[in-house]
Amino acid sequence: MLISKYSEPEFDPYGDARQTETDDGWRAPLAASKLSAVLSLPGSKSLTNRELVLAALADSPSTLHAPLWSRDSELMIDGLRSLGTGFERVPGSGGFGDDLRVTPAGELLGSTTIDCGLAGTVMRFLPPVAALALGPTTFDGDEYARRRPMAGVIHGLQGLGVDLDDDRRGTLPFTVHGTGSVGGGELEIDASASSQFVSALLLSAPRFERGLDLRHAGDRLPSLPHIEMTIATLTARGVEVDNPETGRWIVAPGPIRGIDVDIEPDLSNAAPFLVAALVAGGSVTITGWPSETTQVGAQLIDLLPKFGARVEHDGDRLTVHAPSSATAEGRGIRGVHLDLSEAGELAPNLVALAAFADEPSTITGIGHIRHHETDRLAALAAELNGLGGRVTELDDGLRIEPAPLHGGPWRAYADHRMATTGAIVGLAVPGVIVDDIATTGKTLPQFTALWEQLLA
Ligand SMILES: O=C(O)C1=C[C@@H](OP(=O)(O)O)[C@@H](O)[C@H](O)C1
Ligand SMILES: C=C(OP(=O)(O)O)C(=O)O
C-alpha cells in the first residue's frame, strides 16, 4: 500500500478505513433505520488531475481551491513534481484539506521514474507531458496497472514522432525519451478502450509546436463527458479547442494560462451515498452540488429516477428520496435497461441498486469497464453471485435478476468502486465483509467516516 511521500504527517489516505477494519476486512454496517443524511464530499478526481496537469504546463502559477487529496491526486502531484513542477500547500477554506499552489517548471526535465499506481489519469495524462520534458521518463504502476490498456497513448505519441520504448504489448512499463518538444499535427488513434487516450493528448496539445488535429478511429468512444470536461478545462485557460465533428478535436498551439480554480465536489463519488437512499430508505442530501458541471456524476439526477427515486435539486443541494412505492415489504426499486457508455464510472454502484430491484435489469454499453481498475463486469458478477445474486455477464454489460442476497465476503480487487459497491450491498444484507475498504483511498480517503455519517 503506497502512502505518498507528499503526505503531510496529519494526512493519512487510509486512516479512516484502518480504524474500522477487522482481520477479515471491513464489516459493512447495516442500515438500522431510514436515512436522513446531509453530506459534503471532497473534490473531483477527474477535475483535480486535469487541473494539476494544466497548471504544470501553464505559463504562470495556478491555485487549486479544494482539490482532491487522495492516492490518485498525490500520484499525479508526485509525477509532476519529479518532472520539475513546484507545489506548495496553502491553507484552504474547504473542509477536506489544503489548497494547492502550482508553479510550472521553467523547463520540464525527465531522467525520472513515475509511479502511476492504478490511476488511469496518471498513466494516460503524464506520458505526453514527459514527451515535452528533456530526458527519459519511465512509467510503471501497480501489478494490475500493467494490464490496463495504454496503446492509444503509446501509439499516439509514437505517431507524433516521440521516441518511446515499450514492451510492444501496449501496456506499462515503458520509457518516454523526451527531447523538450513535440511537433504535433495530425494524428489518428483508436480510443475505444478509454476516453483517457483522447484527454491525455488534448491536455498537452497546446504545448506541441503545431498543436494537434486528433481523430478517433474505432467502433465506439466511451465516456464522452470526460472528453467534454477536458475541453472545458482547456478553454477556461484560454486554449482554442474545436470539435468540428464527432471523433475529431483540433487544439491550437499556444499558452495555457495560470488561473485560480475551484474544484467541484466529486459527483461520481456521490453515487454510493445517493444510491444508499434507495437501498436503506429515507433521503440523502449532498451539499455543494454545482449548478453547471461537466462531471458525469451529474447524470445521477436522471438515472436514479429510472430506478424509482425522487430527486430534488434545490440551489446547491441535491437530495435523493427512496421510491414513494417503498413499503414495509419492499423497497419499490424498479428494474432498468440502461446504456451507460457515457457513464461507465457509475456502473458498479448502479449495478448494486439493480440487485435490489423487483424486476430484471440490463446495463449495457460498458464493455470498456473490463479495463478499469479491475475487470468490473467479471468482478461484479462474481461478488454478487457469491452472495446469492443472479447476475450474468454480457459482452458489453450485465443482466441482473432479482434474487435474495445473503452475507459473506466481498472482494474489492483494489478497486475503489468495487469497495463502495460492497458497502451498498451491506446496508441491506447482514454480514457483508469487504476485504479491502482502504482501497477507497484511491479517490475518497474519507469514505468510511462519511459512511458512518450517512448512518448516524
Ligand atoms: O478522464 C477521466 O477522468 C476519466 C475517464 C473515464 O475513463 P474511461 O474512458 O477509461 O472509462 C472514467 O471512467 C474514469 O473514471 C475517469
Ligand atoms: C475508471 C476509474 O478510474 P481511473 O481514473 O483509474 O481510470 C474510476 O475511477 O472509476
TrEMBL record:
Cell location: Cytoplasm
Binding site for 3-phosphoshikimate: 45-46, 50, 194-196, 223, 345, 372
Residues annotated as catalytic: 345 (proton acceptor)
Region of interest called Disordered, as start-end residue ranges on this chain: 1-22
Principal cellular location given in the protein's record: cytoplasm
Stored SUPFAM superfamilies: EPT/RTPC-like (SSF55205)
Enzyme class: transferase
Annotated catalysed reactions: 3-phosphoshikimate + phosphoenolpyruvate = 5-O-(1-carboxyvinyl)-3-phosphoshikimate + phosphate
UniProt pathway annotation: Metabolic intermediate biosynthesis; chorismate biosynthesis; chorismate from D-erythrose 4-phosphate and phosphoenolpyruvate: step 6/7
Superkingdom per UniProt: Bacteria
Family: Belongs to the EPSP synthase family.
Role summary: Catalyzes the transfer of the enolpyruvyl moiety of phosphoenolpyruvate (PEP) to the 5-hydroxyl of shikimate-3-phosphate (S3P) to produce enolpyruvyl shikimate-3-phosphate and inorganic phosphate.
Protein name per its UniProtKB record: 3-phosphoshikimate 1-carboxyvinyltransferase
